[in-house]
């Protein structure tokens, strides 16, 4: 059994009683609209057709995640030990100083979402690595729980065993276990979920807050501007914070550093346990893909890891310097996609295939020598999915991007978005699909 066979079976099931399932789809739309699966004030768009994975896929994801963690741990170790290697990243003095602060535990990336285009164990290519601020666990779990209650998946479960990847309670347990390395004397740490109010995913934060509280931990959601460093501790009013679940993305933390002096000073002095720490930026910044291909990086990787980089990490370069780089990118429009070094949610990303040659040149002129990367364009793999549209059923091909959630350096679950454009993200037309393990 593979995912394609399962997917085809599901499509045939829907076709067998379109009226029944179309009616149920309308009810499901209402349930999602009234759930916590809300992004930027709107219900998360989804289909009445989840992403199916088999145990073989999970085996593949586990191996992929383990290999990438091994590689990135070696890169992070070299960053911490070698001033010369650090210069490759071109981080600001403040960011470098914060990265070098000892996080107090033995994990560089406590939480991550590694986004890739995936078909099978041999055919996959990474898109980007998210560490700080990794999100969308609630989207997957909430929509997944709703879809498991649909008529279609109830009927489908007569043939297959279906289950979700639980991502909320597992993170509560994993994050607290990391805190125990930092301090094993505080039995019930006070926890703050911290992000800038204007940037946070408030519905998801509330779900995590409730999960921490349910396990017995006093938990608040706080803007870092409201936190004070005094008497050797970090406080929100009279609430002393032991552990920060950091949802602030690092580029925003650095950009707004002058607004959060207390938070930064407390971080430097290790007044609280930050999960994750700023150290994860070594992996998060998109320049990591360029650095992984550098010869002096490849030389400290194993032979298997070198093959992994060459086959699965897109060739990437800094879009700056001499005209040779500029002309290579200009003259090969369909070969490249352009990405800012450190923005999230696909901000500033554009693909040559989406533009005319004149538009491409104009965008490149605006990006040259301005913290941009050029990266080989990879056409995402596709799957067929059911659509209910204009009172009829359609089966259409969608491109997909698969995010592997890594908790404590181990595979924990999946976040999938699908679309038809060259860029699949919340800034373009897309759907979020919950991920179902099929046995």
Automatic annotation (TrEMBL):
SUPFAM superfamilies: Glutathione synthetase ATP-binding domain-like. This is Glutathionylspermidine synthase pre-ATP-grasp-like domain-containing protein. The keyword Magnesium applies. It comes from the Bacteria. Residues 54-428 form the Glutathionylspermidine synthase pre-ATP-grasp-like domain. It comes from Tissierella pigra. InterPro entries: GSPS_pre-ATP-grasp-like_dom (IPR005494). The keyword Glycosyltransferase does not apply. Keywords: ATP-binding, Ligase, Magnesium, Metal-binding, Nucleotide-binding. Pfam families: GSP_synth (PF03738). One of its GO terms (molecular function) is metal ion binding.
């Amino acid at each position: 059994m593979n995912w394609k066979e399962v997917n085809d079976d599901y499509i045939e099931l829907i076709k067998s009683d379109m009226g029944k399932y179309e009616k149920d789809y309308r009810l499901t739309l209402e349930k999602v609209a009234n759930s916590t699966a809300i992004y930027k004030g709107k219900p998360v768009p989804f289909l009445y057709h989840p992403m199916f994975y088999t145990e073989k896929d999970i085996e593949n994801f586990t191996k992929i995640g383990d290999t990438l963690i091994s590689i990135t741990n070696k890169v992070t170790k070299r960053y911490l030990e070698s001033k010369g290697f650090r210069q490759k990243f071109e981080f600001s003095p403040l960011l470098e100083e914060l990265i070098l602060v000892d996080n107090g535990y033995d994990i560089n990336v406590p939480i991550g979402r590694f986004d890739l285009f995936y078909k099978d164990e041999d055919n996959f290519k990474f898109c980007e690595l998210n560490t700080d601020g990794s999100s969308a666990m609630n989207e997957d779990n909430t929509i997944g729980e709703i879809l498991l209650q649909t008529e279609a998946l109830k009927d489908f479960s007569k043939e297959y065993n279906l289950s979700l990847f639980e991502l909320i309670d597992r993170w509560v347990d994993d994050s607290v276990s990391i805190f125990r390395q930092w301090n094993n004397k505080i039995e019930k740490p006070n926890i703050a979920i911290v992000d800038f109010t204007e940037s946070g995913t408030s519905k998801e934060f509330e779900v995590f807050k409730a999960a921490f509280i349910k396990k017995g931990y006093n938990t608040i959601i706080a803007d870092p501007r409201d936190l004070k460093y005094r008497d050797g501790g970090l406080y929100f009013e009279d609430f002393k914070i032991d552990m920060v679940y950091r949802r602030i993305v690092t580029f925003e933390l650095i950009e707004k550093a002058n607004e959060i002096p207390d938070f930064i000073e407390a971080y430097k002095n290790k007044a609280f346990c930050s999960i994750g720490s700023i150290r994860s930026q070594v992996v998060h910044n998109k320049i990591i893909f360029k650095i992984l291909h550098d010869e002096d990086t490849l030389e400290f990787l194993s032979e298997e890891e070198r093959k992994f980089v060459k086959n699965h990490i897109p060739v990437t370069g800094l879009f700056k310097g001499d005209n040779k780089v500029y002309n290579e990118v200009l003259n090969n429009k369909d070969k490249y996609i352009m990405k800012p070094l450190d923005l999230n949610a696909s901000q500033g990303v554009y693909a040559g295939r989406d533009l005319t040659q004149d538009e491409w040149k104009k965008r490149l002129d605006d990006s040259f020598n301005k913290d941009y990367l050029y990266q080989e364009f990879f056409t995402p793999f596709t799957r067929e999915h059911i659509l209910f549209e204009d009172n009829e059923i359609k089966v259409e091909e969608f491109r997909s991007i698969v995010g592997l959630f890594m908790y404590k350096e181990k595979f924990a679950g999946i976040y999938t978005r699908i679309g038809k454009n060259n860029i699949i993200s919340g800034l373009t037309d897309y759907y979020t699909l919950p991920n179902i393990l099929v046995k």
